[in-house]
Design goal:
This protein is of the alpha+beta class. The chain has 4 helices and 8 strands. A hairpin with a 3-residue loop joins β2 and β3. α3 crosses α4. The longest helix is centred in the N-terminal third of the chain and has 26 residues. The protein is elongated, with a radius of gyration of 32 Å.
């Protein structure tokens, strides 16, 4: 058998092997899908934000868009989204304005304290009942807008809940305890000081009632 005959047989055999491997791959359901991602770091910022309350929310968001064909016939598209979110509420301490006593006394006076804000929303979205119109189809920007609107609705719902109040109470009491542990006296603006005094009184009552409970309860 000469060289060319041998080479021809090798090529035919290799081709048959590749074809057979492709058949087996298709039958086994394997694909050659490739995924690539590129991470771009835009900037790093130093922040002093403290999480004081955490809440979990579920939201059913209905999206509907009406489009008229030839200004006569309606061609709606709609979708239902179920969003489950973990919301963290806290404070940006860069916005706190304070001063110390001019006479050297250990008094920390808070002149201005920021409102609690949503620091992050971690949301899991699931789309259900997606119905496109005959000509009114869904596009990538539609899904982006739906997710943005759903996240904004979750942000507003979190701010309307008890999370901001809980975060306020937490931060005031934490600062009070921290200042006291270092021998400092904390002074808050009038409204916040009244809230802190009420919280301290409530805490003392709860501790007192706990001490009065019989052993084992």
């Amino acid at each position: 058998m000469d060289f060319f005959t041998t080479a021809l047989l090798l090529l035919v055999g290799a081709g048959g092997g590749v074809a057979f491997a492709n058949v087996l791959r298709k039958r086994s359901g394997q694909t050659d899908a490739r995924r690539e991602s590129t991470l771009l770091l835009e900037r790093i910022e130093k922040v002093f934000k403290v999480v004081m309350a955490e809440g979990y929310f579920s939201e059913i968001y209905n999206y509907q868009d009406q489009k008229k064909i030839l200004y006569v016939l309606n061609d709606p598209k709609k979708a239902m989204i179920i969003a489950k979110s973990k919301v963290l509420v806290g404070f940006d301490f860069a916005k706190v304005r304070f001063r110390t006593d001019e006479n050297g006394a250990k008094i920390l006076a808070i002149e201005s304290f920021p409102e609690p804000e949503v620091l992050s929303i971690d949301t899991d979205y699931k789309f259900y009942d997606i119905q496109a119109g005959y000509l009114n189809h869904f596009h990538s920007e539609d899904y982006t807008k739906i997710l943005d609107d759903a996240k904004q609705a979750m942000n507003e719902r979190a701010l309307q809940s008890d999370l901001p109040k809980i975060a306020n109470n937490q931060i005031q009491y934490m600062m009070y305890q921290l200042a006291g542990s270092m021998g400092w006296q904390l002074q808050l603006p009038d409204a916040e000081q009244r809230q802190l005094d009420a919280l301290k009184a409530q805490t003392e009552r709860e501790l007192d009632s706990t001490k009065r409970l019989p052993p084992g309860q």
